Amino acid sequence: MSRVPVERPPLAEDPHDVAERVEAARHLLRHPLVPADERHARILRLVRRHQGELTRMFADGAGYRLHVDPSGARLFKTGLGRDATRPLLRRSGTPFTPRAYALFSLVLAALTRSRTQLLVDELVAQVRSAAVDAGVDVDLDGIVDRRALHAALLALVDLGVLRERDGDLEHWVDKRTQSLLDVRRDLLAILVATPLSSARSPDELLDRASLPSAVGGARVSVRRRLLESPVLTVTDLPDEHAEWWRRNRNRESEWFRDRFGLVLELRAEGAIAVDPADALTDEEFPGRGGTRHLALLCLEALADDARDGSAHGQAWRGIPLDRAEERCRAVLEKWRDVLRRDQRESPAQAVDEAIAVLESMGVARRERGAGGGRDQHGPDQQAGVGILWVHAASSRYAPAPAIAERADSGELSLFATGGEDD
User: Fold this and answer.
1) Taking the CB of the first residue and of the last residue of the chain, which one, N or C, has fewer CB atoms within 10 A?
2) Contact status, residue 391 vs residue 315, Cβ threshold 8 Å
3) How far apart are CA 285 and CA 297, in angstroms?
């Protein structure tokens, strides 16, 4: 009598291996360039140990390419395309200006033909030469371009592409100090996500850098959105992607938890990716600074108004822009004693800057309504009438207690402030 083969269940993975792989994946999301040096020795060992699994996971799950070689590791992320909310930051925390980006590109061009060790003044001379070749007018003796170049140099130091062997690069702009720099050509070769020489315009470069994966479709697109931004709004998705999300969202919760340690809160409007360790973010909110603190205070007031605002879809609710600004000015007046002097003296500018912070965080969008027209998140507006669209996720930052709202489907709304068990 023949024996019937018994199918054995797959062996459970070692929890230690799983934890290492999650740690490596989280680090690569937060720091896509990991140089081989003493500071990153441990995390690079984890990446190399689990290179095969990580390569497959990023490629199949998000369409990202993982490159690992003796120089380090580089996760080539496509990003979200024309998204201006993730600028390169100076050490002070302020975003790069267009001029700083231009100087950053010129430094990269100069470094491709420089020696592996050079003085900062030598590099400046090569940047001048690269600017001439590119037809870019720069004045590296003027303070504006010198500061932009300085920001580019410090950013490359932070990335590990440049290393200051001797000198005082930190104070180069003001004190004209000299520095001796080492160039990591191996890291320079894998720094740029797409070849600069192949793009004929900035728009073409952005489009090429954000090309979708050849496979994956809605799955890859939706996962990228949640990996790059913590809030997924179904009404912002194409119809076929929204339909895929509705069918697969419970399974996706498991995928994000098992691979990145993220908890997805599923809501009527979409989802929020929450990191229990509170570490997997490139920008904290509110963060430091009077403008950000004022923005948080304004958000509480705006979230209250938004709950009763005119609904457009589920996730965005509109408040007349003049009323929103009035509410923010009232908040400023209430807290004026603890705000900066310039905020007290120029309330209109302070409110404008605070709302700009909320826009950069993706929880508000201004529609000024000049000349009318239709915004993708707002109905037709009369000329001169503005709307501030406030996202439902704003309620998570508003500590005021409220009765949890439920959508027509019976699901808990993002306009509710707590978790799924409220």
Assistant:
1) N
2) yes
3) 12
**Contact (CB, 8 A) for 153 and 110:** no
Tell me the three state secondary structure of residue 89. strand
Cα distance between residue 219 and residue 223, in whole Å: 6
- 294 touches 350 (CB < 8 A): yes
Per-residue pLDDT tens over the stretch 117-167: 999 999 999 999 999 998 999 999 899 999 999 999 999 999 999 999 988
Sign for the CA dihedral angle at 387, 392, 393, 397 comes to positive
| Helix pair angle (51-62, 239-260), 10° resolution | 160
d(CA 47, CA 75): 11
Q: Identify residue 407 by its one-letter amino acid code.
A: A
pLDDT of residue 281: 81
Q: Which residue has the higher pLDDT, 411 or 297?
A: 297
Q: Are 282 and 30 in contact (CB under 8 A)?
A: yes
The pTM for the full model equals 0.80
Q: How far is Cα 272 from Cα 414, in angstroms, rounded to an integer?
A: 9
- Between CA 242 and CA 64 the distance in angstroms is 22
For residues 312 and 391, is the Cβ–Cβ distance under 8 A?
A: no
pLDDT (tens digit per residue) in 199-224: 777 777 777 666 554 456 889 989 98
d(CA 129, CA 148): 17
Residue 301, number of CB atoms within 10 A of its CB: 19
Give the span between the Cα atoms of 170 and 167, in whole angstroms: 9
Residue type, 134: A
Q: Rounded to whole angstroms, what are the CA distances from 389 to 4, 230, 298? A: 64, 18, 14
Which residue type sits at 293?
H
Question: How far, in Å, are 114, 173, 332, 396 from residue 296 at the CA level?
Answer: 46, 34, 11, 11
Residue 25 is encoded by which pair of tokens?
């994946």
The angle subtended at Cα 86 by Cα 104 and Cα 281, nearest 5°, is 120
Rounded-to-integer distance, Cα 405 and Cα 307, Å: 9
